[in-house]
Design brief:
The chain is an alpha+beta fold and about 525 residues long. The chain is built from eight helices and 22 strands. A hairpin with a 4-residue loop joins strand 7 (about 290-300) and strand 8. The longest helix has about 35 residues, at about 180-210. It is flat and about 125 Å long. The two termini are about 95 Å apart.
Amino acid sequence: MSDAGSDPANDSAPGTAGSSPFARPDGAEGSFQPLPVNERAAPSVRPQASEADRQAFGAPPGSEAVFAPAPGHRLPPRHTPVQQPVPAELAELYAGTGAFAPAPGDRLTAALPGPGSPWWKADAAVDPWRDPQSPYWIAGPPVYADDEVVGMADTPDEDGPDDGPSPPKAGRRARFGLSALALVLVAGLIAGLVGGGVGYWLSQRAHAVLTDPNVKLATTGTPANRPPGSVADIAKRVSPAVVSIDVRTADAAGAGSGVIIDEAGYILTNNHVVAFAESPTIRVVFADRSSSPAKVVGTDPRNDLAVIKVDKTGLTVASLGDSDKLAVGDPVVAIGNPLGLRGTVTAGIVSALKRPLRLPGENGEPDAVIDAVQTDASINPGNSGGALVDAAGAVVGINTAIASLGQAGAQSGNIGVGFAIPVNTARAVAEELIHTGKVRHADLGASSRSVTDGSRDGAYLVQIVPNGPAAKAGLKEGDVVTLYGDSLIDSGDALTVAVAESKPGDTVVLRYVRNGVTGQAKVTLGSS
């Protein structure tokens, strides 16, 4: 370390009694080195405050608070301005000059206009409300000279002092006499009569030119072309058999469609239209606007179908067709209650057949997997349970779902991709629900998911039920099913649909791949 800056008066020989406290000890050379740990000074100890210090710097007697404010209290301003009083000498010297501002908190007295102001009034202390910035003021009465108005009086208004000349006295000449006034009135009356007459004549003349009471518009006797099989013909014949369904509970409401399938009042619809956590109130509205309450006969969540019944006679029953005879490109018509608009008809074609489609279950029920008919006929929320009709007017499907580009769970409108349950499946389910109130399903005794090896797709058996139909046929977990009878299996949903279309007790041959080796198994389906 450098010794520059030390006080020469305190410099002396090292180690002497008069040496500086910062001088080097005897024999020290070079810079200071840190002491070993065992030789370092002990940590300082805070000295105890004396009684005199406590009295000088301690809290006031009786106060339990420390210097910091209590939690939640705001700190006072760091600098608080103090209003110093005016010295008595200055106050006496400047008394009456108005040089000093009023005491803090005093209101300023409004400055009222004086007698010289055009806004001055005798009762200004009572009614001081005038705009002092306004360039205008209330003028006094007119000033006359030789019967001519030459100016206005300086008085502010009729309420103030009136110092100006008085208005014209009696006997002064008026501008217009009574005869001139009468002449003006007569001239105005004559002009009004003439103008009204001319206007009336012109309006009648124009009306006669623009109108002709003898004109008759031509009509054609050719009726509209509605051949059998046209959309109009189909709608006329099938619409009376399609109903709208309103479903309500204490805290929920829904709407859908349905198809009358029997004169006894049985109506086929979707399970998700009537499936609620509690017993709903169902009202069916018919094509003639009449309505009737309905009760649920039975539901089939696996196929998303349900049958309800109304107590009403004279119903128009829909004709059920054969969905197995449909071909891609066939014209179809969708009839239902989209968005609450009863009796809506839309047209399109069959876009695809045997489209495996998984539908989310309602109120904790299992997902429904259907072998859907795809169509581009416009289908929207509310069409569910309605009819998909072919060119012959026969119902070939029950509209049930649409593809959506919205977020998961969000309701979206039609984008040209709709799905319907084939009517052959719907007919079998409806008959079983009407006969017994429930539906028996074929059971393979295995669950599956979709897989691929890059060249082949299939249904991977995730779990085999012990002693179930698949286990008894020799199938094992990890087998990949590629063929079910004559149906190609390329996904887990395709296998589910193939089993659903079978009946309990049916025997089918499955082809599968196990460890790269193809095998076959003959399975007798169970019931669930």
